[in-house]
Design a protein that fits this description.
The protein has about 375 residues and is of the alpha/beta class. The protein is about 40% helix and about 15% strand. The chain has 2 domains: about 220 residues, Spore Coat Polysaccharide Biosynthesis Protein SpsA, Chain A (Alpha-Beta Complex), CATH 3.90.550.10; about 120 residues, no CATH class. The chain contains 12 helices and 10 strands. Helix 7 packs antiparallel against helix 8, helix 8 crosses helix 12 and helix 9 runs antiparallel to helix 10.
Length: about 375
């Protein structure tokens, strides 16, 4: 495979010792965002000599390389043929030298204390293999929202069904791995042109404890072309079909890894954990092809059954009523039931009673660009 490495650093300035953190930024045609991402790493309140920055350009055809020339000597920039997210991850991970691998998407950014807080979390829990944290939703108008789903599940997630169902599986820019802990997950299957981050975060919990840092340490940019959070606009049919295809591949690879490593995918806990991917897949499919009433009812009725431990009595009642409303009104008109409910009771920020409530939990499990 041909790889072009631009001279944004030289071999003469290599450190005598390995850095503590390797920051891996994957990018493809995000030239207009890449500078801000890189600056957010270089401006961390963490010793610069303990951080290396690797930018893996997955075949961009825009001005990414030109925009990064201003960072000569401060980053390592690699250009490779387009292969997708998993390919870019594998390429960067083969070259990373740090004890910790921190991932960042090129259209996102970190807040200045990200690395310091994550490092402190790892020091407090030396057996943890991954840390993740909250993320701001960030618009092109430079507005920040704190409405993103997050439950800080820490420890051995696989010990209980409740932990597995609460575990939020956050996106690329929130993830930092202990290098030694992720070796059994590598290389990431390169069929995953997207959702490579989901593969890592979905499986790391079967290997070691994790840390949920309950702080906003990154900004996830909403710009209308994200595959998983497009702001006010709905994803296009083309976007939905791509992410459904990638999710199908993702689940197949997750199941194969679990099988090879001796985990029973039909045990109740693992089965219900994987069911969340299926629910997300069904929700996307309904956006492409309207389901029949019985199909939609079957989909809705499973939510209070699957997430019963996470719901209070009122939430359980609401979700069962909503399922029967779906059977009576159909997919396109269940919003009438939601509207009535909202008029009768003002929903709280944490309630499941939202117009798209049945998709929030499942889609939040795969919250990435």
């Amino acid at each position: 495979m041909f790889v072009r490495r631009l001279s944004l650093h030289t071999t003469d300035d290599k450190r005598m010792t390995a850095p503590l953190f390797s920051v891996l930024i994957d990018t493809f045609n995000y030239g207009k965002y890449i500078e801000e991402a890189v600056r957010s790493v270089l401006e961390q309140d963490f010793p610069a000599e303990q951080v290396e920055v690797l930018v893996v350009d997955d075949g961009s055809t825009d001005d990414t390389a030109a925009r990064l020339e201003k960072f000569v000597g401060r980053i390592q920039y690699f250009y490779k043929p387009n292969g997708g997210q998993a390919s870019a991850f594998n390429f960067g991970l083969e070259r990373a030298q740090g004890q910790f691998i921190a991932l960042l998407d090129a259209d996102d950014a970190w807040v200045p204390n990200k690395l310091r807080r994550v490092h402190e979390a790892f020091l407090q829990q030396p057996d943890a293999g991954m840390a993740y944290h909250r993320v701001y939703l960030w618009t092109d108008e430079d507005r920040l929202s704190t409405r993103a789903h997050f439950i800080p599940v820490s420890g051995r997630v696989t010990d209980t069904r409740l932990s597995l169902l609460c575990y939020p599986m956050m996106g690329t820019s929130t993830l930092t791995f202990r290098r030694a802990a992720m070796q059994d997950l590598l290389p990431v299957p390169e069929v995953l042109r997207t959702q490579a981050d989901a593969y890592l975060t979905a499986l790391i919990i079967f290997l070691c404890p994790v840390i949920g840092v309950d702080e906003y340490l990154a900004k996830y940019r909403i710009h209308g072309t994200n595959f998983y959070s497009t702001g006010a606009s709905k994803p296009t049919a083309a976007q939905l079909k791509i992410r459904m295809a990638m999710r199908t591949a993702l689940v197949a690879e997750i199941r194969e890894w679990l099988r090879k490593h001796g985990f029973d995918t039909e045990s109740e806990n693992v089965r219900d954990y994987l069911a969340q991917f299926r629910k997300a897949q069904e929700a996307d499919a309904f956006e492409v092809h309207t389901p029949g009433r019985w199909e939609y009812f079957s989909y809705l009725i499973e939510y209070p059954q699957l997430y019963r431990e996470l719901m209070g009595a009122r939430q359980l009642a609401y979700n069962y009523l909503r399922a029967f409303a779906g059977l009576l009104l159909g997919y396109d008109h269940v919003k009438l039931f939601d509207g009535l409910y909202h008029r009768l009771k003002r929903p709280s920020a944490e309630t499941w009673a939202s117009t798209s409530g049945e998709t929030r939990k499942a889609s939040a499990k795969e919250f990435r660009p």
